[in-house]
Amino acid sequence: MKEVTKGLTTSTSVISPSVRRGSKRLSPNHLLELVTRLCIFKAERWGRRALFYERHREYFPRLSASRFVDRCRELEATYRALAQMMFLMPGQNQLVQVRALALPKY
Question: Distance between CA 60 and CA 70 in Å, rounded?
Fold first, then answer.
């Protein structure tokens, strides 16, 4: 085994110390932003797909004449509406009951 690794050098890890300690959970605001970006991405993708088939009607006559392009536009509008709703939705504040301890006055 030593003969195989004789010419190799070892180096320290390139991973930053913050990553090595453990994964941190994202806050709900970050998750909401992530979902919003995903919805916008999907909306743009459906829009590009519809535009592609509209531009190339001569190559895809069946898909262009069918309800497929309309459905792509519907999905684009739905994802955009969902992204807008997610972005404008305020965060939830949850109140937690706390028992206050009173110190005696002297």
Answer: 15
